[in-house]
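Bug #77: duplicate submission created two jobs. Keeping one. Sequence:
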Amino acid sequence: MLCNSLVSIDRCTKEDILRILENTGKFEDTPNRKLLEGKIAATLFFEPSTRTRLSFETAVNRLGGRVIGFQDASTTSSSKGETLKDTILMISNYVDVIIMRHYLEGAARYASEIASVPIVNAGDGANQHPSQTLLDLYSIRKTQGRLEDLTITVVGDLKYGRTVHSLIVGMSHFHPTFHFIAPEELRMPDEQKHFCRLHGIRYEEHVAFTEDIINRTDILYMTRVQRERFTDLVEYERVKNIYILHNKMLENSRPNLRVLHPLPRVNEIACDVDNNPKAYYFQQARNGLFTREAILCDVLGIDS
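Kept job's structure:
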């Protein structure tokens, strides 16, 4: 089992990851099971969310548990000045597990150190998004038949994109090759590149988004440029539409290539890609439900 909380993917061993992926497959086969009957989960979303919040809440409901929480921190006592510490300690009294998204990097780790119940990190700033990584790994293995020795191209906001930062860590057990495509303003941070070198992960950096790179790729992972991470909106306007994937760009790609995206998309994947059988982002989001069922059972020590 995980050490109670799921705060970051780097706290998961290879065995943890593979166990959760195996259990995710079981939940895809049978999603409605009363494994959380009598359990209550709190969803504390200090930042907006659609897929993550709804899939976690659906996971709890399909497993027979109940959900309390909020999706707008302005309606809570934090708007009155209540500290994160006091919020976590208070809500720990009421529930069996806390699922939290927060705008501050490290908030989930801090919460896990003071809470009396498991914390599941649903995204903390530009830092980590471990449940997204696990559903990404499940999607990759399901579409490729393996996780080992794949070429993964990540495109767009690599500076602030917590999903790609976590993906690098999650894939580090499986000998990937990465292509990082980003404008200079949004290039992969040195910390993640140092991690790659430390773990023997091959990578190349590019500014141009070309069909040549796409044609050498197994997984094409698109990301949106995140307006909410920018303090300078002029900079955002300059880079927001810099890379757009069109259906024609996939014509000569590998038969096994699949296009992933953590969603929401803005303009970075044209709608003409949606009907291409290589587009997998909506199925990827569906996989999030089954993955989060597996995560909740894991942190609660429930055999699935």
